[in-house]
Automatic annotation (TrEMBL):
<feature type="transmembrane region" description="Helical">
    <location>
        <begin position="539"/>
        <end position="563"/>
    </location>
</feature>
<keyword id="KW-0808">Transferase</keyword>
<feature type="binding site">
    <location>
        <position position="632"/>
    </location>
    <ligand>
        <name>ATP</name>
    </ligand>
</feature>
<protein>
    <recommendedName>
        <fullName>non-specific serine/threonine protein kinase</fullName>
        <ecNumber>2.7.11.1</ecNumber>
    </recommendedName>
</protein>
<keyword id="KW-0677">Repeat</keyword>
<keyword id="KW-0597">Phosphoprotein</keyword>
<feature type="domain" description="Protein kinase">
    <location>
        <begin position="604"/>
        <end position="877"/>
    </location>
</feature>
<dbReference type="Pfam" id="PF07714">
    <property type="entry name" value="PK_Tyr_Ser-Thr"/>
</dbReference>
<keyword id="KW-0732">Signal</keyword>
<keyword id="KW-1133">Transmembrane helix</keyword>
<keyword id="KW-0433">Leucine-rich repeat</keyword>
<dbReference type="InterPro" id="IPR001611">
    <property type="entry name" value="Leu-rich_rpt"/>
</dbReference>
<keyword id="KW-0418">Kinase</keyword>
<keyword id="KW-0472">Membrane</keyword>
<dbReference type="InterPro" id="IPR024788">
    <property type="entry name" value="Malectin-like_Carb-bd_dom"/>
</dbReference>
<keyword id="KW-0723">Serine/threonine-protein kinase</keyword>
<dbReference type="InterPro" id="IPR001245">
    <property type="entry name" value="Ser-Thr/Tyr_kinase_cat_dom"/>
</dbReference>
């Protein structure tokens, strides 16, 4: 299977709105709840719902949401139940208690929930998964990421960031299921143990949200004109499908209107089955205006053109004062005009869906009153969906049924036999599938699996099978003749079992003609003769049998090798898919999104420039809590662009290390893009090393900076999977905190590399003169070792205080050319920055110089790995510290002696 097929990873993250006021609201809600309890209990028995509270101890009716939750016992057999830490316990009315328990999956790459809705296949289902970390493992994790699959296709990459809302999110999809069973799988991609708190499935009894070409991911479901701003959302029981409506969406220059009158939602006018509460409120333009407008910009960018689907929901809710007054309007959606439309009092009207392909990921609409309209337009609600492609089909249903029957018959209880047998990414252990869409099972190896009983007939339903290995089990009974009917079966290994009876003639024929490698050795009571009267084996049969078994063995080992190779390849594609999925992360999910207005206020209208990079200017900012930040604003004309912006945000989202500059938030409002970083009070290393710098860095400080930077880079290279190559390491990208702790910045040019040995040919220029790996310049191959080269230059800078390209009266000299002759002369005093005035440990200085030189050989193979460099540098630092210590100790010692001895002398 090609890893590339499952890489469409849009992300639907609605960061769960935590009502900070949730606790004090409880009393108010409690009253409301009691009143609604009866209504809720009646409606709670809704056959179209599957509501799972993962990790719950028992089934229960949640009083807050009116939803009857089941434990996940019947839906999954792997994983462990647990609860969030008490101090993170959430009380959010519209989520209820469901979020506070969870199931975690420390074992197995893939763990799947098996949902079998009563309505079966070829139906639409609203599926929603909730995730809330809540420090359940007491590990204070700051970030967890894993993949979520629906069936065999990726649905989302779950990204939970602890600083942001305690690491909570939910993901939704309207899924058209072509199978009776819907699997929801969590795939461990190496960025933390997957877990899940809740899983909902709602049968959608209509086709309004039906999509032929994929599933629909809700991007925006807005109930306009909500009267109760303290409610953040509306869902079940108001909404029959348990959609979660956002109440916090506002249209520019609009006012709220509402009615208490009853709107007829039962009729055919309401195909989307909107709740009456959604239709009872609306917005209309402010006095004197005749137009409503809204712009939606999706933060979930992809490398192909997305298809959006937009629904507008109306209902006339204002009683006409003078009869005959007309409310008529047109809708202009991304420049295309529809209408005119008119409304009838208290009758719902859904207009759409309109399908749009928008490379810009933007949906904008105007609703304008027509010239003859007496009244301004209104809008009650709207929905924007994105079509989610489902490229992979689940495994051939007959094969699935057969393998499920086999699993059941032999009580095969393997952790990895979950979800679809062939997809995603890998097949179940012991299974091989072909690349067809839908895939077929072509090989089954259940050797040494403690199978007992007869050979089950379901095996014969695997009609595409080529190789079947049931050797080394306890199988009894006869060999079914029907094996000869499997057209593509070329290997059948039934050896070392307890089979009895005669070997079917047709199988023997196939074996004799070379069509089938048949292995029956070690079944002592099996009669292999044509005439089964004589149980004694004759010599020729023995010879033939052993010849056959030798060739089978040979073949088997060849197959094993191929199999291994194939598995190896799969692993590689797995990791490259991780790399890509990382690229597709959403911006919204990380950290704090800032509006442009906030950015302006944080930077006091861009008052203080503290730097300028390839990206644009960097400004000093102050957050409301008084924290200082650095705000990097993407200038319109900047050399880098939107792609680099996204790249940088995405990397910063995933990569956290004390020696890497961390992101506080970002702004992504149309043309205005900014990144908000922690403020690094001491600027960058380049400035610190300048001749006229006010604070001269001591040798010890330089060593510490070298160790810090090596640490950061080592983490990028070896701590990240796939490894990250910085591509533009230089002293101006090493930033220093108040305490001179060094952190690496500017990942804008970084690229994640799928695997280590792999080097990539880069077409665009990368790097800064003086730091660029000569091998890269020659061949265009960029890899981790290119960073090592740059790091070597950086060390030289730290040691000598010289820039990488030294400007002189006779032209420019590269720092390595400058330093080489001095090294040959052994002249360490001339090499080391004269400003240190000899205050350094010479041994240590030599060692650092050696390390620097080990980084810069012309060919990358000769350069060491960052982990070795880090180890060596740490040794140097330890050496330096102990020598300082012993100096200090001897001073202290003499002081001690001074006070102790002197009185004695007196
Ligand atoms: C998590 O944080 C708490 C409080 O900050 C601390 O007491 C605890 O040791 C931390 N646990 C781990 C595993 O870091
Ligand atoms: C589905 O909708 C139709 C009419 O819209 C209704 O008659 C039928 O009972 C509904 N079925 C379910 C299971 O809700
Ligand atoms: C499905 O996709 C095909 C092409 O890929 C397109 O022609 C067709 O209109 C789409 N159908 C729907 C219902 O979107
Ligand atoms: C509100 O108006 C501003 C300025 O015209 C526009 O940039 C913004 O996108 C509008 N907001 C919405 C939600 O449409
Ligand atoms: C089945 O698996 C066993 C052990 O895992 C291996 O020795 C054997 O060669 C495999 N059989 C086939 C047909 O690949
Ligand atoms: C095998 O397949 C046939 C037809 O496809 C089906 O009727 C039968 O139930 C299957 N048997 C088993 C044991 O899976
Ligand atoms: C058997 O193999 C042939 C050729 O490899 C293929 O065309 C055919 O579809 C296969 N049969 C089944 C039932 O998969």
């Amino acid at each position: 299977m090609d890893g590339g097929q499952i890489l469409f990873s849009y992300i639907k993250v609605w960061v769960i709105l935590l009502l900070l006021s949730a606790t004090f609201q409880n009393s108010k809600l409690a009253a409301k709840n009691t009143a609604q309890d009866k209504k809720r209990k009646l409606a709670a028995d809704n056959s179209g719902f599957i509501s799972i509270d993962c990790g719950a101890e028992k089934d229960y009716l949640d009083g807050k949401t009116g939803i009857t939750y089941k434990t996940d016992e019947d839906f999954i057999s792997t994983g462990k139940n647990t609860v969030v830490a008490p101090e993170y316990y959430l009380t959010i009315p519209y989520l209820g208690d469901m979020v506070n328990s969870l199931r975690t999956f420390p074992e197995g790459e893939r763990n799947c929930y098996t949902l079998k809705p009563r309505q079966g296949k070829n139906q639409n289902y609203y599926v929603r998964a909730f995730f809330y970390y809540g420090n359940y493992d007491s590990k204070n994790q700051t970030q967890i990421m894993f993949d979520l699959y629906i069936g065999v296709n990726r649905w989302a990459t779950v990204l939970l960031v602890l600083e942001n809302m305690y690491g909570s999110a939910y993901y939704e999809i309207i899924h058209y299921s072509v199978t009776d069973t819907i699997y929801v799988c969590l795939e461990n991609t190496g960025f933390g143990v997957p877990f899940i708190n809740g899983l909902d499935l709602r049968f959608m009894n209509d086709s309004s949200y039906r999509s032929m070409n994929g599933s629909l991911i809700p991007r925006m479901q807005a109930d306009l004109g909500s009267l109760d701003p303290t409610d953040s959302s509306m869902r079940y029981i108001d909404d029959v499908y348990d959609r979660i409506w956002r109440l916090d969406v506002n249209l520019n220059d609009s006012v709220l209107i509402s009615t208490e009158a009853n709107i007829d939602i039962q009729g055919s006018d309401n195909p989307c089955r909107l709740p009456v509460e959604v239709l009872r409120t609306a917005v209309q333009p402010q006095n004197g205006l005749n137009s409503l407008s809204y712009n939606y910009a999706s933060p979930y960018k992809e490398n192909f053109t997305p298809e959006f689907r937009v629904y507008f929901h109306f209902a006339e809710i204002l009683e006409q004062t003078a009869p005959g007054k007309l409310r008529e309007f047109t809708i202009t959606l991304n420049g295309l005009k529809y209408g005119p439309f008119t409304l009838e009092y208290l009758k719902p009207l859904t207009i759409g869906p309109y399908t749009l392909q928008v490379p810009e990921y933007q949906v904008g609409f105007f609703i304008d009153a027509t010239l003859r309209s007496d009244l301004p337009p209104i809008l009650n609600a709207f929905e924007i969906f994105e079509l989610w492609p489902l490229p992979d089909s689940p495994t051939n249903q007959a094969d699935v049924d057969a393998i499920m029957a086999i699993k059941k018959a032999y009580k095969i209880d393997r952790v990895d036999w979950q979800g679809d047998p062939c997809l995603p990414l890998t097949a179940w252990f012991g299974l091989q599938c072909n690349d067809d869409n839908p895939p077929r099972i072509i090989s089954l190896n259940l050797s040494s699996s403690q199978l007992s009983g007869n050979i089950v007939v379901s095996l014969l339903n695997l009609t595409a099978i080529k190789s079947l290995d049931l050797s080394n089990n306890e199988l009894i009974g006869t060999v079914p003749e029907a094996f000869a009917q499997l057209p593509n079966l070329t290997i059948l290994d039934l050896s070392e079992n307890k089979l009895t009876g005669a070997v079917p003639h047709s199988l023997k024929e196939k074996s004799n003609s070379g069509q089938l490698q048949l292995s029956l050795d070690g079944n002592l009571d099996l009669c292999k003769m044509d005439t089964c009267e004589n149980k004694q084996r004759s010599f020729p049969v023995l010879v033939i049998a052993s010849v056959i078994s030798v060739s089978v063995l040979l073949l088997l080992s060849i197959i094993t090798i191929f199999w291994r190779l194939k598995r190896g390849r799969l692993n590689v594609s797995l990791s490259s898919s991780v790399g890509l999925s990382r690229k597709e992360l959403s911006l919204k999910s990380k950290n704090q999104p800032f509006t442009y207005v906030e950015i302006v206020s944080i930077t006091n209208n861009f008052q203080t420039i503290i730097g300028e990079g390839g990206f644009g200017k960097v400004y000093l900012g102050n957050l409301k809590d008084g924290c200082q930040v650095a705000v990097k604003l993407l200038s319109q004309s900047s050399r880098q662009g939107y792609k680099e912006f996204l790249a940088e945000v995405q990397l910063l989202m995933i990569v956290h290390h004390k020696n890497l500059v961390s992101l506080v938030g970002y702004c992504n409002e149309h043309e205005n893009m900014a990144l908000v970083y922690e403020y690094m009070a001491n600027g960058n290393l380049k400035e610190q090393l300048l001749e006229n710098s006010t604070n001269m860095l001591s040798w010890r400080e330089r060593l510490q900076i070298a160790v810090d930077s090596a640490h950061g880079l080592e983490y990028l290279h070896n701590g990240c999977r796939p490894p990250i190559v910085h591509r533009d390491l230089k002293s101006s990208n090493i930033l220093l905190t108040e305490n001179l702790q060094a952190k690496i910045a500017d990942f804008g040019l970084s690229k994640a590399f799928a695997n280590e040995g792999d080097s990539h040919v880069i077409t665009d220029a990368a790097g800064t003169p003086g730091y660029i790996d000569p091998e890269f310049q020659e061949t265009g191959n960029l890899n981790k070792k290119s960073d090592v080269y740059s790091f070597g230059i950086l060390l030289c800078e730290l040691i000598t205080g010289q820039p990488p390209i030294i400007r002189g009266p006779k032209g420019n000299t590269h720092i390595l050319h400058w330093v080489s002759p001095l090294i040959e002369r052994g002249d360490i005093q001339s090499i080391i920055d004269p400003r240190l005035q000899g205050v350094f440990n010479t041994n240590c200085a030599w060692k650092v110089l050696e390390i620097a030189l080990s980084c810069v050989p012309p060919t990358s193979i000769q350069r060491p790995d960052m982990s070795d460099i880090l180890g060596e540098l740490k040794e140097c630092l330890a050496m330096e510290m102990s020598s300082e210590m012993s100096k200090r100790d001897s001073v202290e010692m003499s002081l001690v002696f001074g006070t102790d001895i002197t009185p004695n002398l007196r």
